[in-house]
Specification:
Layout lengths: L3 E2 L9 H41 L19 H11 L14 E5 L1 H4 L3 H10 L5 E5 L20 H15 L3 E7 L4 H6 L6 E2 L23 H12 L4 E5 L7 H7 E2 L8 H18 L3 E7 L15 H4 L5 E5 L19 H21 L6 E2 L2 E3 L14 H13 L5 E4 L6 E2 L3
Parallel strand pairs: 2-3, 2-12, 3-4, 4-6, 6-8, 8-9, 9-10, 11-12
Antiparallel strand pairs: 1-13, 5-7
Helix pairs in contact: 7-9, 11-12
Amino acid sequence: MGLFVLRCQKFQLNSEELAVHTSHTYMAKEGGFEMRRNAMGRRTFVFLLLFSVVLGVQGCSGTQAFQGGERGIAPSAIHLNESKALPATAKIRRSKTPIRGIYVSSSAARSPKMEKLIELVDRTELNAMVIDVNGGINLIELPPSSPRSSNSRSAKHFRQMVKRLKSKDIYLIARIVTFKNPSLARAMPAWTLKTKDGTVWRDRGGEAWIDPYRQEAWGYPISLAQEALRIGFDEVQFDYVRFPENRAKVDREVTFHNPKGWSRSEAIGRFLHKAAGKVHESGGVISADVFGLIGTTRGDMGIGQRWSTIAAEVDVISPMVYPSHYSPGIWGINAPDLMAGSIVSHAMKDAVKQNNELRRNGRHIAEVRPWLQSFTASWVHPHQTYGSAQIREQVRAASKEGVNGYLLWNASCRYPNLGS
């Protein structure tokens, strides 16, 4: 079947995509600095090693300090501590066929647009939908009420829609916005990040965040995941499963509730470990979204997302490798948005490399299923219009690295037809 655009119109700048782009751009700059720092560390290490051989020195203590670990701690030490603290994760669950899906907002799922999206999946290689379950709809009651099923009209309609999609054999993934959840923050301000004077802290977009260190706040997203699986979803995807970006600024402004003294990555790992147990008990698959550079860097980039920790706790890990969100110069590419295939190829090489290292160490690893760009980043210069050709370029690049599943992101839920 030939390629054609499902709905031709100029891309309208979406606030969520711009916000994500801003966050990713900041993290890309930080990640680029860390990559250069690590490269410098490796060169320094080689020099010291050669120097020690010449002198007949038998050891080189402290070489891990060159690896750029969190708060000056060697990454290997952090991994060792976390692996001791957490019980072994259950065997990773994998789908029998590659999952190829599109993002569907809760508003799109309740609108006439849904018919076109279903038709798109029916006649293309797509076989899945990632649907918001806590954006504009509450499947369960918000705290402080008990997490029982909601009887609202929108929730009832949503459950009927899920039944229809399952009757069409569409693989359903429930997207749960975890720690940047405005509805939960309004309902339970006691669970939010606080400023030094005790008021609710807000990011540059004016949004409050749930404090990931607060274990009492973990119950709501986990209960929501269980409800999504109960009504027919196959998989639960935790998004915004992280701390706010710009760690230095956040640390200056925020007082965390962290009585156990966990690192950021340890808190995220422990949440996902607990969530994985409950999701598996309910018969579902668990996945997590991470920034694209998490697959490249060995640190947590200040947001608590460390590849080696998350990939060992979930069934599927989805790095958001949108080319437009990388800084110029990454991997020697001056205009990332214009080089979609190259960006995805480098990102997948790095992610697969990290997974292979974990496998050699005898650890369970998550399947890599990236988020690919299906929107035009008109605010980036230079940029290109993203249609079928650009999506295919990204899909081919991932496939060459052995990654055959993918998810397409467009906040407005407008996608080109990829053919059958």
